[in-house]
Amino acid sequence: MTFTLFPDTRLALARDSLAGLSVGDALGAEFFVPGRHPGDLAAGRLPAPPWPWTDDTEMACSVVAELGVAGQLDRDRLALAFAERCEPYRGYGPGAVTILRLIRTGTPWPVAAAAAFDGQGSCGNGAAMRVAPLGAWYADSTRRAAEEARASAEVTHAHPEGIAGAVAVAVAAAAAARARLDGVRPDPDRLLAVVAGALDPASAVHRGVREAVALLGHPADGVAAVLGNGSRVTAQDTVPFTLWVAATHLDDYPTAIRVCVEAGGDVDTTAAIVGGIVAGHTGVGTPGGVPDGWLAAREPLPDWVPAHP
Ligand SMILES: [Mg+2]
Question: Which residue among 45, 86, 231, 263 is least packed, with the fewest CB closer than 10 Å?
Fold first, then answer.
């Protein structure tokens, strides 16, 4: 079935996803502060505000700004936006800092991205961490979400696994947002099957998503031990677990974020990915959605991001 998605609806879905992504990122990052315990969230003890957001949010804001202003991505503009807005203290990895500095100083992005990691290209989780709002924007087409996610990934991530991670997250976010428009809650195995269908079966990310399906219903700590929690900061070590969490807790944003925090690893990024997928489905300030108090505690987003329509 095809239907018309008006630009304001696309932007509203992408902004809700960005709210979830940025709150997950900022709250997740709080748990790297010494003395904070993952059990605090379950006990209802929230960190004192403000919660500063990190690189995940900074890059996702550029994705939403490009979509909101131009209506679609232009890779040259996107690469430059990432490079010019990069504030290194936001927690960028050394590889990302190098790629973005090359682009900022005039190296074409295909050259900069291909040169990374001794010519292998990056398979880091950076393309996946910023892409959920793009998936929500393309709620009317998981195929288009996959194509545009690939394009958005390639400006920094030339390795097939880095790209596959972004495609997987965007397709999940598109399907989650579409389900919201349809007023349904997709079964976890159905959601993950849609994601797996968009991936190259030879990729490690695909293999991880298939493993995630087999682990549905299992306790989260055991699942993270098998799938990874992002501690290696690769796409294949990060994305399958985040999709398991999002599929399992698609209608419960606070629980989805708590599961990421308790799993440890690259928590700001796992919570950003999960938050971006889930919030495109639940919305903000709704039952099961991003709590208004959490949104208020997050550092404000830059004023160049198009406002919620
Ligand atoms: Mg980060």
Answer: 45
Would you state the pLDDT for residue 4? 83
pLDDT at 163: 97
Question: Residue 93 Cα, ligand 1 centroid: separation in angstroms?
Answer: 9
Residues whose CB falls within 8 Å of the CB of residue 167, separated by 6 or more in sequence, listed in order: 146, 149, 150, 153, 198, 199
Distance 250 CA to ligand 1 centre (A): 22
**Cα angle: 129, vertex 88, 266; to 5 degrees:** 35
**221 marked ligand binding residue:** no
**74 labeled part of a ligand binding site:** no
118 labelled as ligand-binding? no
Q: Is 252 annotated as a binding residue?
A: no
Low-confidence stretches of the chain (pLDDT beneath 70): 1-2
CATH superfamily of 7-297: ADP-ribosylation/Crystallin J1 (1.10.4080.10)
For residue 83, the SS3 value is helix
What global pTM score does this model have? 0.98
What is the 224 CA–ligand 1 centroid distance (Å)?
Answer: 19
For the chain, the structural domain boundaries read: 7-297
